[in-house]
Amino acid sequence: QVHLVESGGGLVEAGGSLRLSCAASGTMFNVNRMGWYRQTPAKPRDLVATITPGGSTTSYADSVKGRFTVSRDKAKNTLYLQMNSLKPEDTAVYYCYAQTLTYGSAPNTYWGQGTQVTVSS
Predict the structure, then answer these.
(1) How many whole angstroms separate alpha carbon 83 and alpha carbon 69?
(2) pLDDT at 63 over 90
(3) Are 117 and 9 in contact (CB under 8 A)?
(4) Alpha carbon distance 7, 100 (integer Å)
(5) How far is it, in rounded angstroms, from Cα 94 to Cα 101?
(6) Rounded to 5°, angle at Cα 81 from 5 and 4
(7) Cβ-Cβ contacts under 8 Å for 106 (sequence gap 6 or more)
């Protein structure tokens, strides 16, 4: 089991920045991927960014490339999403996730409770 708690959301003007945090606890040894999704009432949950456990490999949705940076502090078991040059279309509830992989079993995905990000124009 992995328990995830996000923080750092809020209201910001267009062009501003926010940093989201996701504190992880529980069984972490078999986490093979972590990252962030976002969701609005009108759309399904979309992948924003992913990172491998060691932090060596990241990937981003085209809509956030060059503006968002995902990182992980293994010592603190915390995942971050630095969001710069925010746009009104970035407004959404942001969820962090962790995927665990155990030999012989299907992957398990754990989610945080979500944190609201609102970007005003």
Answers:
(1) 7
(2) yes
(3) yes
(4) 22
(5) 23
(6) 15
(7) none
